[in-house]
Amino acid sequence: MSEETRRELESVKSELYRLNLRVRALEERLMRESRLEAAQRSETPGGMPAEPTPPRVAPVPMPATPPDDEAQSLERVLGGKVALYTGLTLLFLATAFFLGWAWTQLAPVGRLTLGYLGGALLLGLGVWARARAERWFADGLMGAGLATLYLTTWAGWERYALLGYTQAFGLTAAITALGIALALWRGSETLAIVATLGGFAAPVWLRGEGADAGAPVNFFGYLAALNAGMLAVSAWREWRTHQLTCLVATIALLGGWAIARYEPAFRDLTLGFVSLYYILFTVAYLLPDTLRRRETHPVSLAQFLIASLLYLPVGYALAQAEWRDYPGAFLAGMGALYFALGGLKTRAQDAPASAALFTLGVVSLTAAIAVQFQPSVQVVLYALTAAGLILAGLRLQSRLLYGFGGLLTLAATAAMWATLSEPIRTRLAVLNEHGVGWLALLAGGGAAIYGLYRDLQARPQSPLDTLLPRGALAQLIAPALVIALAWFSAEQTLYAFELAGRRDSPLAHLLVSLEWTLIGAGLLMGGVQASLRALRLMGLGMLALTTSKLFLYDLGFLEMPYRALSFAGLGLALIGVAWLYSRYGAVNAHTH
Predict the structure, then answer these.
(1) In this predicted structure, what is the pLDDT of residue 215?
(2) How far, in Å, CA of 238 to CA of 246, rounded?
(3) Is the model's pTM score more than 0.85?
(4) Radius of gyration of the CA atoms of the chain, in A
(5) What was the pLDDT predicted at 205?
(6) What angle do CA 425, 428, 434 make, to 5 degrees?
(7) Which of 70, 63, 49 is nearest to 7 (CA)?
(8) Residue 584 to residues 125, 340, 525, 539, Cα–Cα distance (Å)
(9) DSSP state of 463
(10) How many alpha carbons fall within 13 Å on the CB side of residue 414?
(11) Alpha-helical segments (H) within 373-505
């Protein structure tokens, strides 16, 4: 009888117990009412029945509380499984003591015979017990039988040298196949895990020709075939713990082999087979749920992410030595593959898997840019990609794309700082390492600001705000753009004069002040036109910075007529500012 059937019977018994108590209480109540009516009739003169009186409603006694279900469950565990496991443990110890004694009395052939007979006996007992005991009991016996067969084969090969490599390998494969067949027959993931562990342990103790001499084709091929079969079984039966067992065992075997036997001559072969293993695991994790028309299971998705994060650095390390001129090609290719798979998962309405794949795609492409290009090129790629992701996230209302756009914006800023730490080598104004980076930041940031402004106007409320409020992101990007524009104009103006051989010319600083004045005036006028207080405040801040520069820096070395021109230009600009506020101040008094 199964555990589930036993629990159902216990539940039926409890309900019958409660029903019996209620019936008894009802019978007692009816008897009391009958006695009361009889007594009233006897007390009435002439034997006439008295006026009917409302019957007294006796309180129905609450049925006694039946035995607690949790207590019953604990009792079943203590009296059933715990007792049985304890008995099995004692029986196992007694068997081990007996076998230890008998082992010393037998020749090696006899020991192997005893081992195989013992394994077969345990398997037979498990098959016999399948209809007479709980599932876990029968599976435990069969698992112990498989382990005994594996152990006996190991002893015949490693300890006594009675089995050749081909015989030991064949027996191991046969035991593994038997274990998988029993697991499928019983629907038991436990037996599948036991068979899997035995199959993956074979290369460790067999150490065959492929692992000891020449290229490890046999070792890699065996792992590929074993994984293909095991993952097909686990995908079919949805045994996710079995999948995890395959992943951990594969990583352990590959790691041990790499530490002990890897050589540069095996690089291409290793990359090919490691990629094959990754493809097998990816198919096993992502395809079955798609065929069943449902979202990928969280456990399978987590295992896929673990496998991917392990494969990407290993694949990159192996490919980098081969593709020295294009170290980022492998990561870029993987990023494109992840984006393609993410698109397919989106069409299949598998949101968790598509989010994971798009995440891996962005991470791979970001890493590819970092390892392939210089910081000055990274700025351009990061800034433009960030703007594209932010705009796509706003259009599709995708927090994933929107969030990655924000992260890549930070990456672009970090790459720009790295670029500024290096000197300008290109002898061109504006179109040099620093200038192109500034232009990319300005273009990407400007596009992102425009998209955020339009989206805020169209949708005051958005699910994107739960990740990073759009207004807050705009308030972070906008001042950064003003600083970038001011830095860009000053740096490139001074560099242009340096290229012309006039590095210390007062005209260069005069032009910088004029450019900053124009930037401030432009921001102010734009803020007035669009009724945006933030733009107006940034314009005023830019003009205040220009004024400070004029008095604290320019005044110390500017001579006539540059001093007069500088003061006159800024003075006129400030007068224009005052006129704008006197003209439009009342109109914009309550705008933001």
Answers:
(1) 60
(2) 14
(3) no
(4) 40
(5) 79
(6) 60
(7) 70
(8) 95, 53, 10, 15
(9) G
(10) 9
(11) 375-396, 399-420, 433-458, 470-499
Cα separation of 269 and 224, whole Å? 13
Q: Which amino acid is residue 370, in one-letter code?
A: A
Give pLDDT, residue 62.
45
- Say how far apart CA 378 and CA 384 lie, in whole Å: 10
273-to-6, 227, 355 alpha-carbon distances in Å = 49, 12, 27
Residue 586: the pLDDT is: 43
Q: For the chain, give every domain's residue range.
A: 3-42, 108-207, 373-492, 504-592
Do 331 and 364 form a contact (C-beta atoms < 8 A)?
yes
DSSP state for residue 68 in the 8-state scheme: P
Question: Other C-beta atoms within 10 Å of 212: how many?
Answer: 11
Closest C-alpha among 143, 134, 273 to residue 197: 143
**Cα 154 from chain centre:** 39
Contact indicator for 407, 415 with CB cutoff of 8 Å: no
Per-position DSSP letters for 191-258, written without gaps between them: HHHHHHHHHHHHHHHH--HHHHSSS-HHHHHHHHHHHHHHHHHHHHHT-HHHHHHHHHHHHHHHHHHH
Please provide residue 559's backbone torsions phi and psi, each rounded to the nearest 5 degrees.
Answer: -115, 170
pLDDT means per 10 residues, the chain with 592 residues, are 58 68 76 70 50 47 48 51 58 57 69 79 79 69 80 78 82 90 88 90 70 68 92 93 94 90 88 95 93 91 93 90 79 93 90 89 89 86 90 86 88 89 86 90 92 89 87 88 89 87 75 81 78 79 73 55 58 62 52 44
User: Contact at 8 Å (CB) between 194 and 179?
Assistant: yes
Tell me the CA distances in angstroms from 517 to 358, 367, 483, 568, 578, one per residue in order. Answer: 44, 40, 13, 11, 14
- Residue 59, both tokens: 């309180």
- H or E element at residue 365: helix 351-372
Distance CA(558)–CA(550), nearest Å, equals 9
| 3-state SS, one letter per residue, for 11-47 | HHHHHHHHHHHHHHHHHHHHHHHHHHHHHHHHHCHHH
Block residue for tokens 């019996």: 20
